[in-house]
User: What shape does this take?
Amino acid sequence: MRRILAIAWLHLKELFKSPGTLVMMFILPGLFGWIFGGISIESGQTKPVIDVVMNEEEHSTEIFNLLKQNEHYQWNKATLKEAKEHVEEQDTVAAVVIPTDIQQKVVENQPLLDVILRSKTEDYLALEPHLQGTANLIIRIHHTVEESNSTTLPDMLEAAATSKGVAIEKQTIQKDGNNPVEMNLMFVGFAIMFMMFGLSGAASTILDERIGGTWGRLMVTPASKLQISLGYLIAYFLMGWIQFSVLMIAMNLLFETTWGNLTYMIPFASLVILCVVGFGLMIAGMVKTKQQAGAIGAVLIVSTCMLGGVYWSIDLVPEFMQKISLAVPQSWAMSGFKEIISGSLHPATLIKDTLALLGFTAGFFLIAIRGITFK
Amino acid sequence: MNILNVQELGKSFGKFEAVKGVSFSVEKGESFSLLGPNGAGKSTTINMITGLYPPTSGSIQITGVDVIKNPKQAQKSIGVVPQEIALYETLSARENLKFWGRMYDLSGNALEKVVDEVLEIIGLTDRAKDKVSTFSGGMKRRVNIGAAILHKPEVLIMDEPTVGIDPQSRNHILETVKRLNNEGMTIIYTSHYMEEVEYLCERIGIIDHGELIACGTLRELRESIGDRSRIIISLDNEGSHHLEISSLLEGLAVEKDILIKDKLLTVFHKEPQAILSELIQLVTKDGTKITSVEIVEPNLESVFLHLTGRSLRN
Ligand SMILES: Nc1ncnc2c1ncn2[C@@H]1O[C@H](COP(=O)(O)OP(=O)(O)OP(=O)(O)O)[C@@H](O)[C@H]1O
Ligand SMILES: [Mg+2]
Assistant: This one.
């Protein structure tokens, strides 16, 4: 046991003393995550803007609150003049004018809300149903007020704005939950890719060790082959975990991302890391020099990451590509991570992903062991 | 008692036979050397003895343990200094020594203590904290040896431990090895420098083309060439003196005792002074010019030359 730990510790120490590996493992992926994360956060934050032209009447505030319930848009209060300018300069999608004589309009069945826009953009088309719905709500509430006469229109509107039963709210939650999952998956994808680079780089030092003689020296110490293999394995596995957790924590601090239920996340990530270690060792077992390992590794990693949906969601590619993606481990890893991060934790999917990854891991290690011992 | 027994050891790489049925044995406390030119099969033999390569044929016992059947058991009692500098260059000398010590089950205070001792022995106490990559070739070689003696092995096996270093480091290493041997450690040493071997080793095996062509003490090996000195005459052309010199030496030597190669005439003779002037006359008779004359006392180079017709160095 001591020997195993000594070997593992030695290689971890070596790793942290090699600047190249550190750059590959932490700096590059950090940079990637920061840039791409920044982009998606930015685009997430620039919600389309709608101006709302208010008036002095009490109901206008309540209607504004009703409109504001749709969080896909940013609702700003503005004067009519400002609103017109913004529309003209395309700073806003549209401007909604709340009429002063709303009661009269309802009675006379006139259009309730005036909308100012330059053209019917997609954003506006998406907005239209919401405006329609809001208008309908106002009319219905108005009728109720007429009948009961017990409450005033503004009170009722307020009640509607704060009530939870409005259909819009549900929709909002769903969409809200979706975007961060995509973004978190993107970070996980980066982490996987750079882990593959980092660990295949680390594993290929075995080739240097063969040439340098430390491998041979290790073989003629009383340390058994099993102890030596376990030592290396633990070292690479820990390297993988250190890299993965550092990246995940960094992304968490930078972008407040979440990683789902850790009771699922930790074992699943462990399996993925083990699979990546197997991949790195397999490459080391297939080639003769570290340079070859670097070249072949890069080609294999980038292409399989593309196929496996690390750079973009696998749902976006044609069906036959989706079929091909099943042949690379990343697709299963991403699928599993998606289940865990989104919180849906669909058991059948998770089990399938786990089994597939176990299969890949076993295959990689078999090829690695053959390659490394038969040379 | 024999601490090492090697019988009919053979190793082929594909069709190429690198070692062909080598047998020898080493007694406890002895220092034994394998001497041979580049590619003779020294490392291959050593690597089989240490359990790194499985032999194609033959058997090896170290301290009575069968190396082929039970390598991990045998490896506990040996220290191995590989021909390469087998160290982790990004780590310090101390870290390297500690790591290799742990592989031999040393730990804690005992480990710290032997690491200090070994650093003292190899003369690197004040550089212990520096990365090995910053060391000179000689210093690396010393750490390379240090890593093999931490666990005080019964047998220290060294494969050309002084290759490519300055004379000072070499002397330091040779003295260290001699001291370890005097303290009772059995030494197995390979080299293609006969001076080292003559200084260090009681018994010597000469290996060439994978075969052990001679084996014995220095005295025995010298006697095998009749304790004859060598007369080495450099010529300005190769001439055709072979037969005449043979007749001069008639009764004293056979044809094998005269070599002409690369404008060098080598004659083995017991009393070089007695025949020197006659020899020079013979050689210069046809106008051949002599550029230098040297008389060399019988040594291992002579033995090797006599056995193979080639010099050790190439
Ligand atoms: N792994 C190998 N595969 C194929 N041939 C090998 C291998 N190792 C050694 N040889 C060959 O076996 C022969 C003996 O090599 P070896 O390394 O034992 O020589 P050596 O006496 O140690 O030489 P040197 O003084 O250069 O170290 C050489 O011809 C070498 O090319
Ligand atoms: Mg050698």
Q: What stands out?
A: DSSP finds 16 helices and four strands in chain A. The CA atoms of residues 73 and 244 of chain A lie 35 Å apart. The first strand of chain A starts at residue 49 and ends at 53.
